[in-house]
Amino acid sequence: MNFDYIKEINNLNDLYSFCKDAESFVLSRPDLSAGQSRKSLEYLVKLVYQLRNGTVPQRSSLFELVSSEDFTNFINDSSMINALHYIRKVGNIAIHNEEVSQKEALLSLKQLHIFTGELLIKLDLIKSYPLFDESLLVKTTKTIPADKDVDLNQQLVSSLKEKIDKHSTLGVGVNISEAQTRKIYIDLYLREAGWKVLDKDNIKLPEKAGVEIKVEGMPNAQGIGFVDYVLYGSDGKPLAVVEAKKTSVSPIKGKEQALLYAKCLQKEYGYLPIVYYTNGYQIWVIDQLGYPARQVFGFHNIKELEYMMQLRRRGAISDLTIKDEITDRPYQKMAITSVAESFNNKRRKALLVMATGTGKTRTAISLVELLQRNRWIKNVLFLADRTALVTQAKRNFNQLLPNLTISVLSDRDKKPDLNARLVFSTYQTMINMIDGDDRVFGIGRFDLIIIDEAHRSIFNKYKAIFTYFDSLLVGLTATPRDEIERSTYSTFDLEEGLPTFNYDMDEAVKDNYLVGYTVLDRTTKFLKQGVKYSDLSDEEKEEYEKTFLTPEGELPTELSGADFFKKIYNDNTVDLVLQSLMNEGLRVNSGDMIGKTIIFAFNHNHAELIVKRFEKLYPELGPEYCKLVDNYVTYAQNIIDTFTVREKLPQIAVSVDMLDTGIDVPDILNLVFFKRIYSKIKFVQMIGRGTRKSNDIYGHLKHKDVFYIFDFCDNFSFFEINPEGRKVNQGLSVTQKVFQMKLDLLFELQKEENQRNEFHKTYYEMIKTELYQTIRNFNRDRILVRDNLPIVDKYSVEAKWAYLSKYDIQEVKNKLTLLVDSDKDIESAKVFDLKVFYIMLSHLSDDIVAKRAIEQVVRISQTLLERLSIPQVAEKKDLLKEVTTQTYWNKANLETLEHLRNELRYLIQYITDEVGIYSTDFKDELIDQGTKDVNILDFKTYEEKVIDYLLSNDANETIIKIKMLDKIDANDLKELERILWQELGTKDDYFKVTKEENLAAFIRSIVGIEQAAINAKFSQYLDSNILTSKQQEFVKSIINYVQQNGDITRQDLVEKVPFNNFDVVDLFEDNIDILVHVINNLHESILVA
Prior knowledge:
Elements: H1 13-24, H2 30-53, H3 62-67, H4 69-75, H5 78-95, H6 102-122, H7 154-160, H8 178-192, E1 196-201, E2 208-216, E3 224-232, E4 238-244, H9 255-269, E5 274-278, E6 283-286, E7 294-296, H10 302-310, H11 330-344, E8 349-354, H12 360-373, E9 380-384, H13 387-400, E10 406-408, E11 422-426, H14 427-434, E12 448-451, H15 463-468, E13 472-477, H16 486-491, E14 501-503, H17 505-510, E15 516-524, H18 525-529, E16 531-532, H19 538-548, E17 558-559, E18 568-570, H20 571-584, E19 587-588, E20 593-594, E21 596-600, H21 604-617, E22 626-629, H22 636-643, E23 652-655, E24 668-673, H23 680-687, E25 706-711, H24 715-721, H25 734-749, H26 752-755, H27 758-776, H28 783-787, H29 789-794, H30 806-816, H31 827-844, H32 851-865, H33 871-874, H34 877-883, H35 886-891, H36 894-904, E26 918-920, E27 926-933, H37 944-952, H38 957-963, H39 970-983, H40 987-993, H41 999-1007, H42 1011-1024, H43 1029-1045, H44 1050-1055, H45 1064-1068, H46 1072-1084
Parallel strand pairs: 1-2, 4-5, 8-13, 8-14, 9-11, 9-12, 10-11, 12-13, 15-25, 18-26, 21-23, 21-24, 22-23, 24-25
Antiparallel strand pairs: 2-3, 3-4, 5-6, 6-7, 15-27, 16-17, 19-20
Helix pairs in contact: 1-2, 2-5, 2-6, 5-6, 11-12, 11-43, 20-21, 25-27, 25-31, 31-32, 31-36, 32-34, 39-40, 41-43, 43-46
C-alpha cells in the first residue's frame, strides 16, 4: 500500500493506522476514507504545533489550526495550504454523514500522501517516499476503521524536538494544473452548498449536480452543447446551469454561453433555469427574477434555489398598506414606501437615514410585515453591534410581530433556533457561524438582512457577512446623510449623499417628533488654558513641584489643557463640572432631583474620579445616585437597565463609550460632554441620546420639550471650525497597521539610493519576504479572501514583488489590509514596533517628521529604567540609558533602530501601570461661555414684539385655529387686525415688516402648522390613496413651504421654487386630485368669505 513506508518508523503507529484506513476504504467507503484522511491531517498538524510551540492551542478547531499565521508560515506554500484545507473540508462532509464521492476521497488521499511524505522528510525520519500508485488500491473487507483518538506519542515529540523550530518552513507545494484546480474548487463550492457532483458525464438525477449535460438547440454546426454542470431539483428537473471558464479570463466570457444553455433547457422543460457563470475566482448569478447579473459568494443550496423559482410568481410589491399599530407617523410610511419602490425598481439594497429617536426599528418592523404580506420575503436577519441592541430589537419585533418564530443567536442561555423566521445576531456571532470550519447557513438562508447603525457596521471583517449572504439589504442609520462615508453609499449601490430615504434631526424637531436642545457652553480655566506654575498659590506650587519635578531636576513651567483627564486628574476641575450640572441642570420631582443625566468621560480613570468626587460632594444622595457604566464594570447592563426606568436610580450615568450610541432612554434631560469628540458621526449619535420625547416627565401633562447639553470641552466650537470633524480611522488592528507601515518602508527601501546601502538592501529583502509570505499564506477559505482572490493571487507571485509602484502599494493597502488576521504576538510589542517603524520611515522620507514618536520611545525607556528590579529589563540597562540621550538620536540610523526595536519590544509588557498619570487638586475656575439655542426652528425673523406676543398668547383661539388648519371666519380676521394693527402697532408698522396681505398667512409663517393637524388633515389621503414616494415628498414640500411662507396657491406651483422645477401633472397623473385637495385645504383655511 502507498503508506506502508510509515509502518517502519518508530512511534508512528497511530499515524500509520489512520493513513492505512484512509487508503483501504477509498474504493469501498469513500466517506470513511475521507474521515480518516482528515484524522491523519489532524495528527500531523498537531505534531507540528507540539514541535514548534511545545503545545497545541486548546479548544481550537482544525480550521483554526491550519489557518493560523504560525502554521501557514511553517507550510510556506499556498498550494499546500489549499490542499490541506481540501482534506479538511471533504473530511468535514464525511463527518456530517453526507455522501463523499470516490473522486473526492481519492484526491484527499493523494494530497495527504504528499503532505505526509514531505513532513516526514523535513523531520529526518525518511530520505524519500514513493510516488502515489493507484494500482496498489484495493477494496477492503473491513466495515469500520480503527476507533482511535488523535493522541501524540510523547516519545516521538521528544525525539523530534530539535528537528524544527519557530523559524523552520516546509516550503513544498502540491503540483496540480490550473484546469484541475478550477474543477476541484468549483466542485468543492458546490459541495459546500450541499450538491453531490456526479462522477459520470450526462447523468440526470434528482437533487444532484450533473456534469457535461448534453443539450440540443445550440447555434453551432452540430446543434448540441455540453453544460459544465446542471443542478437538478427534487422533481428531477433543472434548477440551474453552471458554466465554468478559465481563471485567466473574465467570468463574463461564460455568460452568453450559459444563457444559451438555459434557453436550450427552456425548450425542453418550458422554463428558464437559473444561470451561474464562474471562472473559479468569481461566481455570478442570473436569477431570472429581473435583476441584473450579480456576484455571489458561492452556490445556493437546493431549498434556496427551489424557493428562488417560487419567487417568480410574486409580482411587484402592490399592497402598500402600512399598519398604523406598528408605524403611524407620515415620515415612517414614506420611508417604507421608498424602500418598496426601490425594490420594485430592481434594486436589492436600501439605506434609511433617520435621526435617533424617530423609530428606525419600528420602521424596519413595518417593512418586514409589508414585504411578508406581499410574499417577497420569508426569512429575516437583524444585525447589530452589541448584545443589548440585539435584545432591544428582538423585544420590539416580538411585540409587534408575535406570530413569527424568533431566535437570538448570541443568546447564551438558550439554544438558537436556526430555522426561525426572524433571526437576531451581533456581527461577531454571525462571523463565527459563517467564516469558520463549518458554515451554519447557506448563502440564500435570509431573504432580507437589516443592518442597525449601518455607518459603522460594514467595514473591516464585518463586510464578510454581506459578501457571504445573497439577500435584500436594508441599512438603518442615524448619521446625517452628509456625514455618511462614501464607501457606505457605495456598499448600498447609491450615489453619495442620496440615501433611499432621509429624515434628519432638524426636521424631526420641527415636526415635533423629537425635542431640541440648548447648549450650556461651559468650561474651566484648566481645560481651556492649562495650568501655569506661576499662577498657583504657594501651597499648590509645593504640590506641583512634588508631582512634576523630574529626577534630572527639570520642572515644566506649564501643563497643557489637552493633558487634563488623560494624564492629569484634577479633583477641583471635576468638582466644578459636577456643581455646574447640579446647579443648572434640568430637574424633576418639583426640582428635588436632577433629571436623568449622562456624563461622557475621557476614560475609565476619569469616570472613576467623577463618581468618587460626586459621592464626596453629595454624600446625602447615596451610592446609587451616580454610577459608572463602562466595560470594566461587572453587570454594567443591569445598571443601564435600571437607568432607563424613571422611578429607579441612578439618575446620573458616567459613561465611557457604552452609552454613546444605541441606548434608548427617553427621560434623558442633561448630557455632559466632559471629553473631546473628533468624529462628527459619533458626536451626532451622542447628542441623539437626549432627543427622544418623554411625556409627563415634570408631572401630569408636563412633557419634555428640551434637553440641556453641557459642553465643557468646546466640542460645538470645534465642529463650527471643523464641520467635517477629523478623519477617523476605520478601526484597523495593530497587526494591520504594522502591515501597512511595512509597505511604506518597502516602498522607500526599494529606491535606488537605498539599495546602495548594504543594511537597507538586506532589510528590504527581509520585509519584502515577510509581506509576500503573509499574502501568499492567506487562507483562501475565508470569505473576504475568496472575495478578493484575484488580488491575493496577483501578489502571491514572487516576481510581482520585484518592484511595487505607488499604485501597487495602495492596491495592497486598500484591498488586502483587512485580510490580515491579528497574530498572537504581544500587543504592546507591536505598538512599539509601530513607533520605531515610523521613526525609520522618517529617516527614509523627508515628508515624515517623527518627533512625537521619538519622544514616546524616550519616555518608554525612562519608564523602563525605573523597573531595573526586573531581570529582563536590567539586562538592557545600558541601551535604555543610551536611548534617553540626544547623542543616540543624532547618530540613529535604520540599523541601530532595528536593533533597538528587537531589544526592547518585549520589555514593554512590564510597563503594567499607566505611564505619567498624575493626581492633583489645584483650584480651578469655571468659565461661562454663554448659552446656545440650537433647537429653535429656523423661522423667518419678524418684528420682535409680534413674536413675543405670539409666544405669550399661544392659547388665543384664532392663533390655535391657524395652527390647526381650522377655517377662520370674519371674527377671527377682526381679532388679527386688533392684535397686529392696534395692540402691537399700526397698519403701517405691519407693512414695513411684511408685504403679506393675508394676516392669517403672516401669522402662520411664524407659528407654523401643528403636526397633529397635518396628520389629521392629510394622513388619510396619503395612506388610502397610496401616493408614490416622490408624490409624498412633493406633498410634504408643499406643507413645508406653507410652514415657512404662510400660504400657497395653485399659481405658486407654476411660478415658485422649488415647484416650478417639476411637471406636476406628469408627476401626479391620476392622483392630481389629491394634490389639488391638499393645496385647497391649506389655502382656504385662512380665507374669509
